Amino acid sequence: MRAIRLSFFQMVRAMRRDMMLFAACLAPLLAGSFFRFGIPFLEEIFTGYFQIPAFLSPFYNLLDLCFAMLSPTMFCFAAAMISLEEADEKTAAYLFVTPLGKTGYLAARFGLPAAAAFLVSVFLLPVFKLTALSPIAVLLSGAGGTLQGLIVALLILAVSSNKLEPKIRIIVTQ
What we know:
Blueprint: H1 2-17, H2 19-50, H3 60-88, H4 91-96, H5 101-128, H6 135-159
């Protein structure tokens, strides 16, 4: 467990050095502010302009679900980028033979970030929600968002050959 914790904190330090990944982890706060204050403001503008009683408000539940998926997606995306960088630099293979092992590596790179993303999502969703959500709905939305974030991270790893270029290439013929 100590090796997993140390490896996780090593990944967090790598995220802090890469400002783009650091910004991706802070994006849920900025997006939450937009969801909470910007969308009702746009609702007022659109309902006044189009002279209708509701424009965006029927979709508030869907927007809450999208926000619940945002934090886990950003956290797991950052973890996938760190894993791709380690694969590019060939350090991941060296980490597999340490006491961390393959299982510990996966737990440190995907398990702990997903758990942290779940906690952040469960904390931020009641703060920035647009509709009344029960505690069960918040937990289920956070769990669903976390699973979706893990799937996105694993898809990034499966489709990318390195941090900058996907494995899928379009062949141009002349």
